[in-house]
Design brief:
Rossmann fold; four-stranded mixed β-sheet; 22 helices; binds iron/sulfur cluster
Amino acid sequence: MPEIFVGDYVAEARKALKDPVLQGALADLQNRFGRGTEQAYQNLPEGPDLRLRAHDIRADAIANLDILLETLADNVRQHGGHVFFAADAKDAADYCLKIARRNGAKLAVKGKSMVSEEIGLNTVLMENGIEVAETDLGEYIIQLAEERPSHIIAPAIHKTRFDIGRLFKDKIGIEYTEDPPSLTRAARKMLREKFLAADIGFSGCNLACAETGHIATVSNEGNIRMSTTMPRIHVAIMGMERVVARLEDHDILLRLLCRGAAAQNMATYVSYVGGPRTANQVDGPEEFHLVVLDNGRSRILADAEFREMLCCIRCAACLNICPVYGKIGGHAYGHPYSGPVGAVVMPLLAGIDDAKDLCQGETLCGACQDACPVNIDIPRMLLALRHKLAEGDPGWGVSRSSGSEKLAYQFWSWMIRNRFIYDFFLKMASIGQNVLPYHNGMIRRLPPPMAGWTRDRDIQPVAGKSFMSRWKKNHRRR
Ligand code: SF4
């Protein structure tokens, strides 16, 4: 499977819209987490403005990324760990494979990590004869189903307990049950065996701390703690932007991360790892590696328009509130990032032309920024991407939109700035629409080239009298 890819956004979105089970699951997700997050920010002792402080912390870190990464690497090495800076996905995956091979690893356990999805780690390890066991329950389900995650932190959100019951019966041979605790127990039993037998553990990194040389991992299942401490080797992979300067910054960011992700005050497990276990520690790996991944991030860092996106802490709050994600789910966005964060990050990583549907599909309603624990201005960057698509940008390899599209928008822009012409076209439209097919007072189908507008919805007819003419008339009366 390619590490970053954009599929057919429109076809996948259509499929999702017709799937009632998925629609129910997405509505549940957004009702539970999306709404809860706002309340969770309100309940912060410092109030919701703490998000602005968090934005400053992340922006400072991104502005000083070179120094922070060097400090982090020095401190990890001082603890006896190894640090590898990977230029791209292949570099990172090759390094992970090299460590696994050098240690004769046959079985790897993995904590959920989107960056490992980004580098296609599972594929590389499995193609080289190393079994990989995903240990996050959602990721375990997805791995058994041979599917892709559809949400950053709830990868199996598109699956029902009935699906999972059938899957567990077929793949791990338990008796069919749709009882969630029984299914969880079954997965736990299988995974315990993997933890005990694993030679190497892989994890992501929610945040790194430069001053102490530690990475923090956050989970509710305890599986990351087991993946990182039980095997002899631990390899953590982080996007190069996930570092902040001080431990006190973690206090603010982790509290916001958990509120943004699942409306929780704090996750059940927050672990700090900075190197192999020392002589007086009973737990921990004998060898610790930190892989710091660039894979296109330097390019984002170099562009003042999109640098802010590197402040993202991948909490998924924007997915949980986005009206578009809430209808089309995660698979339409391609792999691995979905929702509003994916609509910006995927074009920047996979190519703006190739991923243009993602940024054009969002509504610009601003809900993502309101929900974001670090107050990232996603709508601004969506607009900046659209601007590049309209005007072209050789620096990002973006070709200019077609001449006819540009002409159509130039005409539209000219028309709406000219009152007389605008009124004239409105009048024409209100007369012309009389020959169109109607359903319940709505226009059922528009003729080409506007037919696409009514392929999936009916539209409101143009009013017989415009607001302006009614206003003038009413005003005159008084
Ligand atoms: S953009 Fe903000 S809300 Fe979305 S994943 Fe990143 S930090 Fe979370």
